[in-house]
Amino acid sequence: MDKNDIIFKIITYAADASDNAKAAIEEAKKFNFEKADELIEKANESYLVSHDEQSKLITLEGNGQKNDLNVLLIHALDHLTMSNIRIENAKNLIELYKEVNKLKNN
């Protein structure tokens, strides 16, 4: 198992998760909650794949294969962390937009 392949998968899926979370916020701003919820689900799915790839690196290290700390790995883990934060913020913003929409329609 090539560690760089794992690192690039972390980056790719975390970026996809982040992009979908951002798009979900934009849909919520338009009160298009069905699409926002769909995008958040896609973001969660991508995040989980990225997280699973990170777990592979942890498992490799646990099995004695040292992971050299390099800029690419740091970049990947930064993407993973930031995508998690963006998803959580997006979920909160979507709920706020749903409340705003309820108040607007009353």
Q: Span from first to last CA?
A: 57 Å
- Helix content range: over 70%
> Which sequence of SSEs, written as H and E, runs from N to C?
HHH
Summing up helix and strand content along with how strands pair, one would put the structural category as mainly alpha
Please tell me what the overall shape is.
elongated
Overall number of strands: 0
Rg result: 17 Å
Instruction: Specify the biggest β-sheet.
Output: none
Indicate the low-confidence ranges by residue numbers.
Answer: none
Report the average pLDDT across residues.
Answer: 94
Question: Which range does the strand content fall in?
Answer: under 5%
Provide a descriptive summary of the structure in words.
With 106 residues, the protein is mostly helical. It has three helices and no strands. The model has no long low-confidence stretch (mean pLDDT 94). Helix 1 runs parallel beside helix 3 (71-104) and helix 2 (33-62) runs antiparallel to helix 3 (71-104). The chain starts with a helix and ends with a helix.
What's the short story on this structure?
By secondary structure, this protein is an all-alpha fold. It contains 3 helices and no strands.
